[in-house]
Automatic annotation (TrEMBL):
Pfam families xref list: HATPase_c, HisKA, PAS
Keyword Nucleotide-binding recorded: yes
Gene3D superfamilies: 1.10.287.130, 3.30.450.40, Histidine kinase-like ATPase, C-terminal domain, PAS domain
GO molecular function annotation: ATP binding; phosphorelay sensor kinase activity
Upper lineage: Bacteria, Pseudomonadati, Myxococcota, Myxococcia, Myxococcales
Swiss-Prot/TrEMBL keywords: ATP-binding, Kinase, Nucleotide-binding, Phosphoprotein, Transferase, Two-component regulatory system
TM segment ranges: none
Enzyme Commission (EC) number: 2.7.13.3
Name of the featured protein: histidine kinase
Length: 640
């Protein structure tokens, strides 16, 4: 609503036109009012003043309507604060029924506000600088621990003199993963995590998504530190997930603005939450990467990975143990340099197929070892693809088939021995018939000679030797057939001394070839055993044969049996050179031998150990270089 502007003619000698000219020429913003403070006239300076402060003359008139005119001859000031925050001072001077009004800006108020604004700008600049530095620090943090330390430095710089607590939790479970406190924290105050209702609403955190029992929401911020009077808090929220909270508390007497601190703390928490989320993602990725690396490195399989350039990028421990080559010696080398020359032509098409994305199964090849030897391995390949589907490399997982191939040879050899055994059984049958006749006729002739007076004693001795030799051949062939016949695994009561003697009989040719002697020291009171006779004979044949092979001519195999408690003990000792310490722990491994090619019976010590353990016993060895070796077999005695 516009105010009515009326010209008031002052009393005096000046003409109205002269007064009007003087009034308009004033540089100071002025107006003329009546006693009711209704504006009668304004000069151009006042209009410019109002326009410069974005107000109208009508607004000024409304402000004067609420004021009181001074007494005649007096003056006073009226303060007017505009919506923009500008403070105006209106000076009212009265003469009779006329009130002159002068307007000016309150320079002191403006100066004070400028100081406050300057301080606010400086504080804002400092805050933004600290937040910027904090952003760099958390971005460069190598882990959650470094990140929390960087946040703590930022909080101390932004809010000096406050006690504060930084808690980082697992977003899925709510479990506490990191804690930093600056101040004297109350006992048990760090859990559970209590969030301020107002802060939760500002961060758009969904309460139903919070872990139950670990996180609660309250209308008030709980005090976590001793000696605190007030508190503010801010949750660490990123992508709708809670990653922790920052609590800050004020000791008594600290002059601070909690509302301002809360705004800054929420701003800081938003920045930190994203960094915590990224740090946890990095930690998870690092853990998964290390786990996969350990899985590949320590897997109980041969694992080899090559890139598109056919360079080796993964060479796990199993391969290192098999070939004797370390990772440092292999990584970065071309795969073809690890394969035998004769395998190069076979390897090329397989590798080319794998690079095209085709899988190859059961590809056998030979890898070179550190000492220049070769090992046979079997691989299955699979291609590693990039996101667009291009082949990035090839992973080969395999196994050592050297032992399998050796086992196949042993099986073939065993089959040949089995065939020879069948042939031997037929030969024995053919020998037994004439030898039985020889024994029968020799016995008849001997009996007749004894009943004939004047018989030549020398002829009788010859007949005795023929009879003994024939019985010896018959006994040997009978035991040989019993030994060669497959065991039925039916234990029977056997004499340990008789079993050892039977094994010695089978080894007579080995003993004679080695030109050693056998010394027996049997205890006569060893009770019988429950055992498979043929299997035990195999054990002692192998141990006696090994002892003969370990000695030079003139050596001695010492056999002893004894009862020790509830066990029957057999010791087979030789006077050979002994077993080297580095081989002593491996002698029971399948196919491990230190004998030259062609020596031995084909029954490995691992088989002997298995036979003894199947009987409930134990097989052990003691050896000293230059002092011989002793194998000890302990077997449980048969129950009465």
């Amino acid at each position: 609503m516009k105010s009515e502007v009326r010209a008031v003619r002052p009393s005096g000698t000046l003409a109205p036109d002269a007064f009007q000219a003087f009034f308009d020429a004033l540089d100071e913003p002025a107006a003329v009012c009546d006693v009711a403070l209704r504006i009668a006239a304004v000069n151009p300076a006042l209009r410019r003043f109002c326009a410069g402060h974005d107000i109208s003359v009508e607004v000024l008139a409304e402000a004067l309507a609420g004021a009181v005119a001074p007494e005649d001859g007096q003056s006073h000031e009226v303060d007017l604060v505009l919506q923009s925050g500008t403070s105006l001072v209106l000076t009212l001077s009265r003469r009779a029924d006329t009130v002159a009004v002068r307007a000016r800006v309150d320079t002191e108020v403006i100066s004070g506000r400028l100081v406050v604004a300057e301080r606010a700008l400086l504080e804002q600049a400092r805050t933004e600088g600290v937040l910027l530095d904090l952003g760099r620090s958390v971005a460069e943090a190598g882990g959650e621990e470094e990140l929390v330390a960087a946040v703590a430095r930022g909080v101390k710089e932004l809010f000096p003199g406050r006690a504060f607590c930084i808690r980082i939790v697992d977003a899925r479970t709510g479990g506490l993963t990191s804690l930093y406190a600056e101040g004297r924290l109350k006992e048990g105050a760090h859990e559970p995590l209590v969030l301020f209702q107002r802060s939760v609403e500002k961060t758009n955190l969904t309460p139903t998504a919070l872990p139950q029992g670990r996180v609660t929401i309250s209308e008030e911020v709980p005090l976590l530190f001793h000696g605190s009077t007030r508190a503010v808090s801010a949750p660490l929220v990123a992508s709708g997930q809670l990653f922790g909270a920052i609590n800050m508390e004020y000791p008594e007497g600290l002059d601070a603005d909690p509302a301002h601190d809360e705004r800054v703390l929420l701003q800081l928490a938003s920045q930190v939450a994203v960094a915590v989320k990224n740090a946890k993602l990095i930690d998870e990725l690092t853990f998964v990467r290390k786990y996969l690396e350990e899985l590949l490195e320590k897997a109980n399989a041969l694992i080899l990975v090559v890139n598109r350039d056919k360079q080796v990028v993964v060479f796990n421990q199993a391969l290192s143990a098999l070939t004797g080559l370390t990772k440092e010696q292999v990584l970065g080398r071309d795969l073809s340099s690890l394969v035998a020359d004769s395998e190069q032509l076979r390897l090329a098409p397989v590798l080319a197929a794998a690079m095209r994305g085709e899988s190859v199964n059961n590809f056998e090849t030979r890898l070179l070892t550190r000492d220049g030897g070769e090992v046979r391995v079997s691989f299955a390949t699979s291609s590693m693809l990039t996101q667009p589907g291009e082949v990035e490399g090839v992973i080969a997982i395999g196994q050592d088939v050297t032992v399998v191939k050796e086992l196949e040879k042993r099986i073939i050899h065993a089959e040949k021995l089995a065939s020879i055994g069948q042939l031997a059984a037929s030969v024995v049958h053919e020998i037994n018939n004439p030898m039985t006749a020889v024994a029968t006729y020799a016995d008849a002739l001997l009996q007749r000679s004894r009943m004939t007076p004047g018989a030549n004693p020398a002829d009788q001795e010859k007949l005795k030797k023929i009879l003994e030799s024939s019985h010896r051949i018959l006994r040997f062939t009978r035991d040989l057939v019993s030994y060669a016949r497959p065991a039925q695994d039916r234990p029977e009561r056997v004499s340990l001394n008789a079993v050892v003697d039977m094994a010695v009989g089978f080894c007579e040719h080995v003993v004679s070839q080695a030109r050693v002697t056998v010394q027996r020291d049997y205890a006569s009171d060893v009770p019988p055993l429950a055992a498979v006779r043929a299997n035990l004979v195999q054990v002692f044949v192998n141990l006696i044969t090994n002892a003969c092979h370990a000695m030079q001519p003139g050596g001695q195999v010492q056999l002893s049996t004894v009862q020790e408690g509830t066990e029957a003990v057999v010791r087979v000792r030789d006077t050979g050179t002994g077993i080297e310490p580095r081989n002593l722990s491996r002698i029971f491994e399948p196919f491990f031998t230190t004998k030259p090619e062609g020596r031995g019976t084909g029954l490995g010590l691992s088989i002997c150990q298995g036979i003894v353990e199947n009987h409930g016993g134990r097989l052990s060895v003691e050896s000293a270089m230059g002092q011989g070796t002793t194998f000890t077999v302990r077997l449980p005695l048969a129950a009465d």
